[in-house]
Write a structure and sequence with these properties.
- The chain is built from 21 helices and 21 strands.
- With 562 residues, the chain is α/β, with parallel strands linked by helices.
- Strands 13-14-16-17-18-19-20-21 form an eight-stranded mixed beta barrel, surrounded by four helices. Strands 2-1-3-4-5 form a five-stranded parallel β-sheet.
Amino acid sequence: MNILIVDDDIVDREHIKRTLSKSDQKCNFIETESVDEGLAAFRKHKFDVILLDYRMPQRDGIEMLLELKNEPIENSVAIIMLSNSEESSLALACLKAGAQDFLLKIEVTAARLNRAIIQAQTRFELERKLYQSYKNAKKVAEHDALTGLANRYAFEETLKLNVNKSSRSEDGISLMLFDLDHFKYVNDTHGHDIGDLLLKEFSVKVGHCLRESELFARIGGDEFAVILRNKNNNYLATKVSERILKSLSVPFHISGIEIQMSVSIGISIYPDNTINADELFKFSDIAMYRAKKLGRNQVCYFEDEMQKQFLLRYKKEQDLTNAITNNQLHLHYQPILCTKKQTLTGFEALLRWSVNDILHMPDDFISIAEESGIILDIGRWVINKAINQLSIWQNHNPSLHMSINLSAIQLADNQLIDCLKNALTKYGVTPKCIEFELTETALLENNDTSTNMMKELNQLGCRIALDDFGTGFSSVSHLQNFPIDTVKIDQSLMLVSSKIKTLSLIKGLSLMLHSLNLEIVAEGIETEEALYLCQHLDIHRVQGYFISKPINVKTIEERYFK
């Protein structure tokens, strides 16, 4: 059996070879350390199976799957994805991208791996036969039975025809590939009948954003494609994408059910990206995958600059994975004062990441940490570090408290409460001295898990603060539906508090929050006038650059505890 192993970790590769050597079947191995090397080996040799690692430098395993998925069926091969991640969503993403199986590396044994290879090959042969049947059937008709749009066969033929025509003219082609975000949720929640009706109405709505001459096709379950011909392709594709996203901002109403739907759009350009029709489709597919990774409801072009940004982001994610081990994370603390007495009441712990003497602020890396799941380990580290530091400073002032930021992702961390309890016990800090800050964005992702986590924190005795109040998605309902003790007025309001309308807004917010018996903290105090306003409005606590920037432990101890 000829096996291609694509994994940048030599230890994992050796483990796989030793494991398979215990079987009765003779195995020949070719090893590569990157996606590009793996693709080169695939095109040079004939393999029975590919064992593909998900996490690799530069390009991950799913990108290789997407490229292999577009190979001619006769050249394809069974693929088993391997990973250390236990996230079911990753396994589903790999299977959806084309893998026949998904195994955790820690569970790899000779029997399990041999069985997986046999099953993957069997599934692959079934897929090959099913694909051939589909290929024969799609030639019978060129329209999708459900939506009336062009089907995949018609789309592929039209794309090839357009590429051939464009090669003889000055026209270019923009290929837009998109699918519905979280469409599976609609089917699971409301049933496939509602899902089918949604696809039909979606097709009509998007069709109104296009010209009659532009091919609009349904090429899969919830996957669609548009071919645009124009000399100024970037501009046209951008405008069409904007029209589609804008049209989808209005919810669908189907059988009395309101459904909000969005799409992730990937775009490739002929001849800028490629002059090959199959590659044009493949590049749009990769761009769409990246759009989903950026948070869905996004538009991504497949272009060199985007590729560079993607690789830089991937490198940052890899570096973040080792940030705790390499002692690259540290906390700065911003003092919080009692507004009336101007005495120190506590601190807000603010995360910093230092790599090669370059200091990264949270805006530069928190979103990456959240999307990759690294935020869970980082969050637990912050909790331990901040509570430890508070216990030291409470030797000087026992009434001090510590504010710690929590992201929406952390509210789903089933180890969060145990981590918090252990830290409080270890360092002898009472729960009421800890205040967790949540943004309104986190509350918007309201679900039972998040709500229960907030209740557990509240029942433990910790305080919960609603951060950035007064901007964005501010809603009074949050103050009623969640166990909130403190509201932090957003610093953007305090920075322009001299404006009459803003001043009136701050006064109104203050009166409302006082009437609800909530503690009020004003962020972004940068002038004496802003501080005076807070005193006048009886706002309880203040923080901001007028008082102090976030500073390190040494500076705090020299300033407050000498």
